[in-house]
Amino acid sequence: MKDIDMIQDLPSVTGHSDSDSTAGNKKKPKQKPIKLFEAALAQIQKAASLIELDPEYMAILSQPQNEVIVNFPVRMDSGHLQMFTGYRIQHNNILGPYKGGLRFHPAVDLDEVKALAAWMTFKSALVGIPFGGAKGGVTIDPNKYSEAEICRIVRRFTHALSYNIGPEHDIPAPDVGTNSQTMDWIMDTYANTNSPSARQAVKGVVTGKSVECGGSISREAATGQGVLYCLRHWCGQNEVTLDSLSVGVQGLGNVGGHFMRLACEAGCKIRVVGDHHATIKNAEGLDVADVLAWVKENGSLKDYPGAEHIDSDALFAEPVDVFVPAALENQINLSRAKTMQCQLIIEAANGPTTSEAEQLLLDRGVEIVPDILANSGGVIVSYFEWLQNKSAHYWAADDIQHELRSLIWGAYDQVISCRERLHSTTREAAYAVALYRLREVYDRRGIFP
Ligand code: GLU
Fold this sequence. Notes:
- The protein has helices at residues 36-50, 55-61, 110-127, 147-161, 180-192, 222-238, 254-265, 288-298, 314-317, 334-339, 355-363, 371-374, 377-391, 397-422, 426-445, and strands spanning 66-75, 81-92, 98-105, 133-139, 170-174, 246-250, 269-274, 279-281, 308-310, 322-325, 344-346, 367-369.
- The chain is an alpha/beta fold.
- Among the domains are: 63-206, 3-Layer(aba) Sandwich (Rossmann fold), CATH 3.40.50; 222-372, 3-Layer(aba) Sandwich (Rossmann fold), CATH 3.40.50.
- The strands form 2 sheets. A 7-stranded mixed beta sheet has the order 9-8-7-6-10-11-12, sandwiched between helices.
- Strand 3, helix 3 (110-127) and strand 4 form a beta-alpha-beta unit.
- Helix 1 (36-50) runs parallel beside helix 3, helix 3 (110-127) crosses helix 15 and helix 14 crosses helix 15.
- The structure holds glutamic acid.
- Glutamic acid binds next to strand 3 and helix 13.
């Protein structure tokens, strides 16, 4: 499928622990796979201990509420029938409808989707929007299918999910390997399988739709924009200016691409960037507009003529002030972390840093803006889209930016004051702010019956 808005389809080290990822080192003993959901729970548990969360609440949050797995057939262009497996994991809805993206990627499995769903619960709670957490996906490489095949897969998956999604129940959005076109098809399929009188009222069954089909202005760039708002906030705290910073970016999909463009417009020097085919650098700063035009035209950085090409692992070792992982999970592992020279990591991807790597980086004084804060811009503007669909009143770009900035900066301020109060890491503080919100609501609502 052409022009898909992928975060970044890098060869992932997901599923293997840190030291296993050193390519070519055959002597290394086989490492235990990293279980992503376990890793997510360990992050939550640290914050829960710090705020002395009632273990009963932790027990509730340690399991998704619902796990929907569907197997469905789709007719390929060749005439053959192919079976697909899709997931929708609904982690928690105490704060509002389940919310989170749909990922189309070969590495999608139950463990990954469970972790991603849990992170959504905490992301929404942290930034104070009335959503719970969910995530879904199909185990598929979308690049291997025609647009017509992808359309049939999306529609049949939507039909298989059936009433497990809905505008007041569970609201999918784009993630790795899906985009506004995917959301338009889901909305259309869902509407057409509803009663005729309800069809106009169900636009909000997904967010991240095209503007033409009821999407919000600025939704596509929102995650990258939010990452830049985090960077601006950090600059304010540390009395540095954006134009004094050199930046490295991993991933040139929707998130990395928009972040890189916006950061460059704001004056940052983008020194190095890598995607699944190549890594390029220029110590004086890359010509970002030219790089993005090349990627749009050619699909990746491969053979980009305007910069020096380096090894993919060398991306992490380049001397930059700020590093932005905008790809998949577990990309910053221990061996890569050892080579990193930046002062700040802003996690545009979900779960990009392993716990061992994080410990090493923190010991070295590197600051990490955690994923649930750093990449919350996407779900925040999804919330604005959902509100716009409900009211049929559409906002101007300035209103979106103003509200997005104030939610992200407000959450960032709360995380910093919580970090000081708890003497914790930034990640622990981010989870703690989210847990305070969840605890408050559980305290008031109680446990049914
Ligand atoms: N997939 C995005 C995320 O991981 C956006 C989710 C949404 O807008 O619901 O945050």
